C-alpha cells in the first residue's frame, strides 16, 4: 500500500534521531562488541572527530574489526585492553608471534607511550636436542619461531644459570631489550604493556557524564553541559514523535481499508496486458540469410549478435526483422520472438510478418 513507505521511514528515522540527540560526537566507541572501548585520550579514526582524542593516540579498526594501534617505528599491533585509570594499554601481535616483532627490533621512538621497566633478553638459535640436554632452557622455546630442525629460545637475563654452556648446542645469539614489567616469560611472548603520561586524566569529567576534548595544540577541555539534559531531550522527542507516528499510522490504516473497498472494475485492460510472442510459422516468414565464406554482412559494422554476443562466422544463419532491419543468429532470435514478439534492440513490436515484409520491400524499392 502507498502508506507503507511512510511508516517504514518513520520507524527508521525516529531511532536515528534519538541516537543523534543522545550521543555526542565524542561518545565512547568500539570496533566490535568484544573490543576495548575507545574514549579520550584515544580516538577511533574515521568514527570520532579529531578533537575527541589527544595527538598520537589514534586507533583504527582493521578488516576483522579488531582495534589497532600503529607505533611509528614498530608497526601495527592489536589493542588487547585499555586501562584508563592506570593509563596502561596492552598490545598483541596480529600474527600471534610477538617474539618475531621483538627480534626485528622494537622501539617506542616517536610514540606517545613509555615503559617503566626494561629487561634484557637473549635469542638463541639451538639444535632441537636442546630439550634433551637442558630441559630448563627448553622452557624458553618460542614455538612460532621454531621448527623440527632447530629451536629458537628467548631467555631473560635473570634466567641465565652460571656454568651452563650453550655454545655447542646453539650457534647464534642476539640480545634485545624489551619493555616488560613482569618476570613471567610467557607474558613476554604474548603481549606488551605500555603506559602513557603526556595527557591529563579526565576522571572528574567522565564521572559527571562529560567527554574530554582536545582543542588546539595542548588544551584539554571538558565542555560544560548547556541547555536541557539528555533525558529532557528524549522526553521531548518522544512526546512529539509519538502522536505524529500514531496519527500517520491511523491515516495509513484508513487509506488501506478504503482502497480494499473500492471495486476493481475500473482497472483498464492495458494494465493487464502482457507482451505476446509470435508462433513458429509467423517467425519463418522473416527472411533468413547465410553468411558467406568471405564473412560479408549486410551491415559490416554490425558483426556481433546482440543476444549471444558472439561474432558472426561464415555459414552462420541469420534472421532479419524487416521493420527495423536488425539481424541476429536465427537460433537466438527465434526463441526470443516466441516469447516477446519484439526486436531485442529497438523493442519495436512486430505486426503481421507479411505486412512487415511488404512494407520493408516497398520502402527499399522506393
From TrEMBL:
Residues 305-347 form the RING-type domain. This is RING-type E3 ubiquitin transferase. PANTHER family: RING-H2 FINGER PROTEIN ATL20-LIKE ISOFORM X1, RING/U-BOX SUPERFAMILY PROTEIN. Its EC number is 2.3.2.27. It comes from Punica granatum (Pomegranate). The keyword tRNA-binding does not apply. It is an enzyme of class 2 (transferase). GO terms for molecular function: polysaccharide binding; ubiquitin protein ligase activity; zinc ion binding. The lineage of its organism: Eukaryota, Viridiplantae, Streptophyta, Embryophyta, Tracheophyta. The chain crosses the membrane at residues 234-255. InterPro entries: ATL20-22-like, WAK_GUB, Znf_RING, Znf_RING/FYVE/PHD. The keyword Cytoplasm does not apply.
